[in-house]
Design a protein that fits this description.
One of its GO terms (biological process) is tRNA threonylcarbamoyladenosine modification. It is found in: Cytoplasm. It holds the Pfam family TsaD. The protein is α/β, with parallel strands linked by helices and about 230 residues long. The protein folds into two domains: about 120 residues, Nucleotidyltransferase, domain 5 (2-Layer Sandwich), CATH 3.30.420.40; about 90 residues, Nucleotidyltransferase, domain 5 (2-Layer Sandwich), CATH 3.30.420.40. It is about 30% helix and about 30% strand. It contains seven helices and ten strands. Strands 3-2-1-4-5 form a five-stranded mixed β-sheet, sandwiched between helices. The protein has a five-stranded mixed β-sheet with strand order 8-7-6-9-10, sandwiched between helices.
Length: about 230
């Protein structure tokens, strides 16, 4: 995997940028829940300068497509679209939940990961993933937004010890403690662009890229709206 890909994410409290080039990773990351708009572009400039490359020399631009904060997801995709449009780059949307699974493997070696982001309104964004031999991740539970109590009623018991990632575990500890699965809390609270850029390499290799006009966020809730770009149906 040798594509030159820049990834950025502002979908949660964490603001991050990562560039992968020639097998080397350039990373900027900071938990700054109210300063995404101030920090994300300087982070982009910083990693590009460190790597000695311009946007136009990249192969693709990846972004955290959600789920996450409505405002955060909107900021991230808007900035990513602007950068990709100006540099004429294809885009790759990466799940924030899958990125946390990859982060859990990177930091702790977890190969089965249950991800829960606090979605407010007494709900979580939920997804479970299993790492494949090639390093990609298989989705076991489809991404959803769900009340923890409802999840506990629907989920089936298994013999796997799941690594846990995300802010939802602490926010709804009492409810999620009733899940009929074995869980081991991990270090990952937020998605990070360095994990997104890794996953984006697989998508790029498979030709799974989008145009700027095709790129869209994933909110999971039906009651939020995305202002479509001009010309989109």
């Amino acid at each position: 995997m040798s594509a030159k890909i820049l990834a950025l994410d502002t979908a949660t409290e964490n603001c991050s940028v990562a560039l992968m080039m020639n097998g080397k990773l350039y990373v900027r990351s900071e938990v700054a829940p109210r300063d995404h708009t101030k920090k994300i572009l300087p982070m982009v400039d910083s990693v590009l300068k460190e790597a000695g490359i311009t946007l136009q020399e990249l192969d693709a631009l990846a972004f955290g497509r959600g789920p996450g904060s409505f405002t955060g997801v909107r900021i991230g995709i808007g900035i990513a679209q602007g950068l990709a449009f100006g540099a004429d780059l294809p885009m790759i949307g990466i799940s924030t939940l899958a990125a946390m699974a990859q982060g859990s493997y990177r930091l702790q070696g977890y190969q089965q990961v249950a991800c829960a982001i606090d979605a407010r309104m007494s709900e979580i964004y939920w997804g479970r993933y299993t790492r494949q031999e090639d390093g990609s991740w298989q989705e076991i539970d489809a991404e959803c937004v769900i009340a923890p109590n409802t999840l506990a009623e629907q989920i089936k018991a298994d013999s796997i010890t799941w690594g846990c990632a995300g802010t939802g575990w602490a926010a709804y500890k009492e409810e999620l403690d009733t899940l009929p699965i074995s869980c081991q809390m991990g270090e990952v609270l937020y998605p990070d662009a360095q994990d997104m850029v890794f996953l984006a390499q697989y998508e790029f290799a498979k030709g799974n890229t989008l145009t700027v006009e095709e790129s869209s966020p994933v909110y999971l809730r039906d009651n939020v709206a995305w202002k479509k770009l001009p010309g989109r149906e």
